[in-house]
Amino acid sequence: MRYEQINNSLFIENRKRFTAKMQPNSIAILTSNDVKHNNADDVMGFAQNNDLFYLSGIDQEETILVLYPDAYKKENRAILFIKETSELIKIWDGEKLTQEKATEISGISRVIWNKDFENVLQAMAFEADAFYLGHNEHYKRATSNQQTQQDRMIQWCKEKYPLHTYYRAAKITRDLRPVKSTIEHELTQKAADISVQSFSRILKACKPGKNEYELEAELTYNLVKSGASHHAFQPIVASGKNACALHYNTNDSVCKDGEMILLDFGVCYANYNSDTTRCFPVNGKFSERQAAVYTSVLHCLKEGSKLLKAGILPADYEKNMASLVEAELIKLNLLNADEVANQDPEKPLYKQYFMHGTAHYLGLDVHDVGLYSRPFEAGMILTCEPGIYIAEEGIGCRLEDDYLITENGNINLTAKMPIEIKDIEALMNTKKN
Ligand code: GLY
Ligand code: MN
Ligand code: MN
């Protein structure tokens, strides 16, 4: 693995917290994700299932975790099933986890080859009353047009054990994962630190005539060199009007003199993610209008992020942010104060220039699991990302930092990434000397 091995106390504690929430006499089965195939023999890569990783620390495909805290036999209380390696796998793919290594990473003493999963489970299934199974519960992107390993496990288990009761493992992990432990804070900080360095590299490389993908390459170079696994998501390098398409990521336009670039990127380190956005002028000097829009967004970030604190409801934080952005849109002469005063509250005018939410949980998923009906709590990590998008002027500006909520407020994990106009201009202009 590219990252320093994580202290397995993280996964041991996570399992304790998970099993404490299970119904009596039930078995949880968590599966890894599929390795996604390309057209022919190549693969699109592998991303571990984050609930499985959270409870085991195992990054390898074809892994199954079984937790049965009330099992009569102690040896059945936690079992990890991993892929058995072979001479052929060794020749083509290299080393896979040994059972000993899997124990060291996860803290689970019983590790068995996955070919024995069905037999071993059978011996436990009829002792238990219920199963917890994993499923993607993302409200928009839950799998609908592709069958996942989780779907196959649900189908198989329900066919084989139709009279058991079934529960959702994701309902437990969505409660646990938002509140992070110290180890998780440190891993996220590491991802954030790599982001900070990567941003400086971009500022040095940027000049009129560069293609957006050349700037993307600077990011990729730096994050791979720093031990990150990959981009947390396809980075957005959007010059000029491209910045007004919120998820633009083709990154294939030439950056022109006079334009501003919106750069939204994340680093995935040890499966934990950062997510940051900065904007900067292609030629190293903000125009008056770019500076005005930027100053407005920066004001909203500074003021809005103050409400990322324990006890505040996400809806109240977003309402406050919307008011901040609305006031800035009036100052920028994009909205008229009288029209705003008389607007239909169901269709606020600011939505024309500011159309997204500005805080999401950050963790093993960039948009991490967790309910937004829950007040913020110490230990959570959230982004703050206000933006103003003026398509008719070819200016899109978003600024995004990552905040750890503490007992007394929050800590900005990405505070070292330059954000003041004078600092960005100074850095961009130093490189030209
Ligand atoms: N890049 C997606 C986001 O900022 O949430
Ligand atoms: Mn982002
Ligand atoms: Mn974000």
UniProtKB/TrEMBL annotation:
Q: Which reaction does it catalyse?
A: Release of any N-terminal amino acid, including proline, that is linked to proline, even from a dipeptide or tripeptide
Q: Which Pfam families match?
A: AMP_N (PF05195), Peptidase_M24 (PF00557)
EC supergroup of this enzyme = hydrolase
Does Cell membrane show up as a keyword for this record? no
Listed GO molecular functions?
Answer: manganese ion binding; metalloaminopeptidase activity
Q: Where is the Aminopeptidase P N-terminal domain?
A: 6-142
Superkingdom of the source species: Bacteria
Q: What is its EC number?
A: 3.4.11.9
Q: Which GO terms describe its biological process?
A: proteolysis
Annotated keywords: Aminopeptidase, Hydrolase, Manganese, Metal-binding, Protease
For this protein, the parts annotated as crossing the membrane are none
Protease as a keyword?
yes
Entry cofactors: Mn(2+)
SMART domains (alphabetical) = AMP_N
Q: Which Gene3D superfamilies match?
A: Creatinase/methionine aminopeptidase superfamily, Creatinase/prolidase N-terminal domain
Q: Which family does it belong to?
A: Belongs to the peptidase M24B family.
* The protein, known as: Xaa-Pro aminopeptidase
Q: Which organism is it from?
A: Tenacibaculum piscium
